[in-house]
Amino acid sequence: MTRSEHRLAAAFLLVAFVSLFGGALTGLFQALEHAGVDVHPHTPVIRSYYHSLTLHGVLNVLVWTTFFICGFVPFLTARALGRPLASAGLAWGTFWLMLGGLVLAAIPLLGNAATVMFTFYPPLKAHWAFYVGLTLVVVGTWLVLLNLVLTWRAWRAATPGARTPLAAFMALATFAMWTIASLGIAAEMLVMLIPWSLGLVAGTDPLLARVLFWFTGHPIVYFWLLPAYISWYTLAPRQAGGKLFSDPLARTSFLLFLILSTPLGFHHQYTDPGIHTGWKLVHAFLTFAVFFPSLLTFFNVVASLESGARARGGRGWFAWFAKLPWGDPSLAAQVLAMLLFTFGGIGGLINASYNLNLVVHNTAWIVGHLHLTVGTAVTLTFMGVSYWLVPHLTGHALWSRRLALWQVWLWFGGMIVFSNTLHRLGLLGMPRRTMIGAVPYMQPEWKALLPLVGLGGAVLFLSSMLFFLNLLLTWAVSRSPAGVPPEFAEALSGPEHAPAILDRWRPWIVTAFVLIAVAYGPTLLRLALTTPFNAPGFRVW
Ligand code: HAS
Ligand code: CU
After folding, report:
1. Which CA distances in Å does 394 have to 7, 79, 81, 83, 487?
2. Which one of the ligands is nearest to 352 CA?
3. Which of 28, 39, 210, 291 lies at a 20 to 30 A Cα distance from 244?
């Protein structure tokens, strides 16, 4: 690997950290609002609760995740293949394109001209620069895939007959899945939102836009999750002192994500009129199906961690868990992320069950769910990865392991309070995406719980500040040299046990498209043919 890979990863990570900082700050403001302290009238740039909420969502789930992934995953792929990225020019062009897109989107976002939430449902209408900017970011992710594919092909030409290393295989599967998934949002942007926001067409249609949005909006959660899984499968077992339990099972899990991630977006639209109930049922079943690759992951990763803990002297059915190297903040972050993700995953099944969804949809429950998944499984794992990656990239040892451990446990504890309270508030009927301190229908039982949202949110904010402080001091103050980064884990059952079909891409990609055509074809076709595009835009903020 060349210096270029290091600098590229550092550049992407820097943007990711800056946006996570903004996301954490706005998150604190919202948690405080729920607890009865509305700071928004006193903040300089942020005009309102809804402005803050939009910034929070966009910065955290769209920017932090995407930029971290586009830095981390190509870096790991290059390491796994033992060669630089095929085109450094393409890689840097991609970075600048994505950064340019981000800046373009950030101008109306910060200027309160795109206060449309991270889902930007029409008829809410943002400034065109917001849509164009986000589209450029998506185009950038396609270029990342292109570079990964070119790199992999060059590797294959140089090493004929060898099995693709697991991390590279997973990186390709993740970006292939995402590229297929992103076609929905690309169509929404290019055909609907961009011409509409530029005034080229007069009207739009909320239902078709929402269908296209969720075509991408569900699988995007696996675009965030799979890079965390890559770390859990390929690095964490070794960090725990053990081996990956099964390499073929890990590949199977990622191929299942490749084919099953996309055709199930209607589980976000169970309450939308204009979609036939039968198709909603099909998407519900497919959602239960995509649960399986996560169950495979649960089994495989727990078995791998167990092998590490037993090698360190762990005994018993469960007592081995205590023997994991808990003093390593990178591993501790990831294992705690896994623990909370177990609850996030179970909550996901509840969301996916049609009749239970009617109870929790659009309530604070969903906010509880998404903070366990993207807010912990993904974010806490990425923090854990940062604890070795940032020292490796800067060449300086982590400033303080103790502080990092404090940070990780504070996130875990803060999140338990925060997300559990939101789940309960949701069951009590409290709506999400609402400036709850201002509603005339405040319930006493909500009021009793809301201070816990403020408390949990404040602990999470403190934890994120400790994270940034540690990384900043690592870069600026720490002078001892960084240790070696974690090596890829060996496998108890290695790739040589994998059937050859797991090495082929075409059958899986074709299956993905067939399932999408079945699950979405009829509805999309009907909507495209009958939608009147006559809804005007609104600016309600
Ligand atoms: Fe979700 C809404 C269903 C996973 C994110 N989800 C959201 C939203 C977000 C989100 C952001 O069906 C809100 C969107 C909005 O703004 O409206 N979700 C699911 C299901 C899963 C799921 C079935 N979600 C995720 C992941 C996310 C994420 C992952 C981000 C990264 N979700 C829904 C539904 C809705 C929804 C509905 C719409 C609700 C509505 O009405 O609006 C599944 O993929 C979950 C599978 C996960 C598991 C857990 C496996 C556990 C593992 C950990 C291993 C543990 C170890 C440690 C090793 C089966 C792999 C344990 C150690 C021991 C010793 C035990
Ligand atoms: Cu979903």
Report:
1. 9, 17, 22, 20, 18
2. 1
3. 291
Cα of 265 to ligand 2 centre, how many Å? 6
Strands 244-246, 491-493: parallel, antiparallel or unpaired by DSSP?
parallel
pLDDT of residue 503: 87
- Encode pLDDT of 346-393 as tens digits: 999 999 999 999 999 999 999 999 999 999 999 999 999 999 999 999
Show Cβ contacts of residue 164 under 8 Å, excluding neighbours closer than 6 positions.
152, 155, 156, 172, 503
- Whether 8 lines ligand 1, by a CB cut-off of 6 Å, is no
What torsion, rounded to 10 degrees, do the Cα atoms 370, 372, 376, 378 define? -60
User: Which of these CATH numbers, 1.10.10.10, 1.10.3860.10, 1.20.210.10, 3.10.20.310, describes 3-530?
Assistant: 1.20.210.10
Alpha helices (H) along 395-491: 401-427, 444-476
* HEC profile of 464-476: HHHHHHHHHHHHH
Q: How far is the CA of 349 from the centre of ligand 1 (A)?
A: 8
CA 328, CA 322: separation in Å to the nearest integer? 13
Q: Which of 213, 281, 286, 369 to mutate to test the pocket of ligand 1 (most atoms within 8 A of CB)?
A: 369
Q: What are phi and psi of 198, to 5 degrees?
A: -85, -5
pTM for the predicted model, two decimal places: 0.98
CB 266 less than 6 A from any atom of ligand 1 = no
* Predicted local confidence at residue 500, as pLDDT: 87
Average pLDDT over residues 98-125: 98
Q: Ligand 1 within 6 A of 225 CB?
A: yes
Q: How far is the CA of 211 from the centre of ligand 2 (A)?
A: 12
